[in-house]
Amino acid sequence: MTGKDGGADLHPIGNSPVVILVRPQLADNIGAVARAMANGGLYHLRLVAPRDGWPQPNAWRNASGADRLLEDATVHATVADACADLHHVFATCPRPRHIVKSVLTARGAAAELRAITARDLRCGLMFGPERAGLDNDDMACTDALIRYPLNPGFMSLNLAQAVMVMAYEWWTAQDQTVPRTLMTNETRIANKAELENLLTHLVDELDQCGFLQNLPKRPGMVRNIRHFFQRGEATEQELRTFHGIVTELSRGRRLRGRER
Amino acid sequence: MTGKDGGADLHPIGNSPVVILVRPQLADNIGAVARAMANGGLYHLRLVAPRDGWPQPNAWRNASGADRLLEDATVHATVADACADLHHVFATCPRPRHIVKSVLTARGAAAELRAITARDLRCGLMFGPERAGLDNDDMACTDALIRYPLNPGFMSLNLAQAVMVMAYEWWTAQDQTVPRTLMTNETRIANKAELENLLTHLVDELDQCGFLQNLPKRPGMVRNIRHFFQRGEATEQELRTFHGIVTELSRGRRLRGRER
After folding, report:
1. Contact yes or no for A35 and B158 at CB 8 A
2. Containing H/E element for B220?
3. How far is A93 from chain B (nearest CA, A)?
4. Gyration radius of chain A's alpha carbons
5. Which of B69, B151, B164 is best to mutate for the A interface (most A CBs within 10 A)?
6. With contacts defined as CB-CB under 8 Å, which chain A residues touch B31?
7. Fold of the domain built from segment(s) B18-172
8. Which among A38, A65, A128 has the least Cβ separation from residue B2?
9. Euclidean distance between CA atoms B40 and B165, whole angstroms
């Protein structure tokens, strides 16, 4: 999650939505937006009337290597100009009033953006200025609004974090990663025969050292040990380690037996 | 998405996971983390060996009103100490090697956190320092790792943005908002009879002004107009506006007819 992909060569993948920052105020935020865009596979940045002009070095400083997005960013005088070649534009907006408009969740918007871009249409994602947000005329240029489900007790969202959530949802909308997997690296998950082999070794030593000498209780105790070892997916390497542990812990008793 | 919830009174909702920042470097980031936590309904912050000590004024400056989280934050010497009263700890980590560990997506982790906290167990979400990330000993203290599905060409994620994604997923995991809805505010969606009423009005005027005088083409043209008006959900207010538009556009012809 850390470090710097300095000078990353960010080649656009597919027909990704254009991020439109309307009247952005802080160059720091524009840079952080570019970084968040790169994280989520959004490559096209347009700036409508940036308050302090463009380009601004502070943006590059804060982009953590997403320089290409800043270099390719275009500046537009009006929202209409920034949207002219697009077919669908969604705008993030927390609390609009007195208007009739479709409202999407971030996830719903990402799914629709994927469906629309798959038809070879170009989409835009519009974000308002840091303090005031989008005005009513800006919103009238858009197809739908996006409102994130977030804590109603604390809705103040940094501009780059607002972009991060949409970039993350855009990427995730086509991601196939399973929710949970066991990363095994150099080893592999053990099969039941290998696990049985360890349990036999362990129970055999436990019988010999006297741990299971209470015969009425023995079956239940053996089952409980089995339950524990079945709880996770043991790997072949871990079973070998446990074979070693059991052998080494038992060595003293064996040596003692031999000495006698 | 903008503005400041200055001095927001952030009362914890339910048994939310503890965010553990391990050896965080920048106070600015700690503040931004608190803001992101508040956005997603995470209220408990623990700091393990913060590089520049604690408290630090810059954190408050960057928290945008999430002061309560910073005031309640606790400082711990070790990861083990920060985790002592927790039952499950997940850690974000992009590229671990040579270890055997379960790996969750952010969404998978949020679902599991909801399920675990619903059993009245306490969970932790661990984030590593800005540059180096978590070390191998830190990771050995955790139940599972979280790896976000993000652009493999640009994985450099700001600490506060990493927290934002998990906070957002935590909140969203229990959110019931429908993906798309029409916000109608003061008005309501028109029913088919009201729409029919407008279309009758419009077609009647189009007949009278001669727009539909090509009789063989008339049925198809009327159908196409109907198709357009059926495409969205018209509101009662919008239909009234269109009645007015049709009436006003037709006024000249009526007056001219009367004058003749």
Report:
1. yes
2. helix B218-230
3. 6
4. 29
5. B151
6. none
7. Alpha/beta knot (3.40.1280)
8. A128
9. 9
DSSP alpha helix (H) spans, chain A: 27-39, 57-61, 67-71, 79-83, 106-117, 136-140, 159-172, 192-209, 218-230, 236-259
CB B147 within 8 A of CB B40: no
Q: Are B27 and B52 in contact (CB under 8 A)?
A: yes
Residues 6+ apart with CB under 8 A from A209: A250, A253
Rounded average pLDDT over A170-178: 95
Pick A164's closest partner by Cβ from B4, B38, B165. B165
Place of tokens 């790996």: B103
pLDDT for B8: 65
Q: How far is CA A125 from CA A128, A132, B131, B165, B215, in A?
A: 10, 17, 31, 18, 45
- pLDDT tens string A108-133: 999 999 999 999 999 999 999 988 88
A213 to chain B, minimum CA–CA distance in Å? 34
- Beta partners for residue B123, in sequence order: B88
CA distance A37 to A161: 10
Q: B213: which 2 tokens? A: 């005088």
Six token digits for residue B154: 């640009």
> Above 50 in pLDDT, residue A4?
no
* Regions in chain B scoring below 50 on pLDDT: 1-4
B87 close to B116: Cβ distance less than 8 angstroms? yes
Nearest neighbour of B179 by CB, restricted to A9, A11, A111 = A111
CA–CA distance, A46 with A49 (Å, rounded to integer)? 10
pLDDT at position A8 is 65
Please give the model's pTM, rounded to 2 decimal places.
0.90
Residue written as tokens 């994280």?
Answer: A39
Check B96 against A183: CB less than 8 A apart. yes
Closest to A44 measured CA to CA, from A11, A79, A80, A77: A11
Tokens describing residue A184: 């095994």
